[in-house]
């Protein structure tokens, strides 16, 4: 089972209850899955939510880095001369 990503750090590790409503069939299947994985339904839900939140955090961080890199990039693919300047360099020797 994947390790926890430590998302409780912002709340001092305190845990709170969350009530959800699921179809009876899903609940039964979740209980059976939890037994096979040697955990609880709460553990399954916690693990999946931590994975989803962690993935979202990584995505947002990557997006911020990409946007920052684009903001800092040089226009025209790194070419700093204009077309006219390049033309002059080629023919004004």
Could you please describe the fold and organization of this structure?
By secondary structure, the chain is mainly α. It has one domain (20-91). It has three helices and no strands. The chain is rod-shaped and about 80 Å long. The chain starts with 23 loop residues before the first helix and ends with a helix.
Give the count of helical stretches: 3
Class by alpha and beta content? mainly alpha
Oligomer: single chain
Cα end-to-end separation:
69 Å
Task: State the domain count.
Answer: 1
User: How would the global form be characterised?
Assistant: rod-shaped
Q: Strand portion, in percent?
A: under 5%
The radius of gyration computed from the alpha-carbon positions, rounded to a whole number of angstroms, is: 26 Å
User: What percent of the residues sit in helical stretches (DSSP H or I)?
Assistant: 55-70%
> Uncertain runs with pLDDT below 50, 5 residues or more?
1-5
Order of helices and strands: HHH
Q: Mean pLDDT, nearest integer?
A: 85
Largest sheet: none
Total strand count, please? Answer: 0
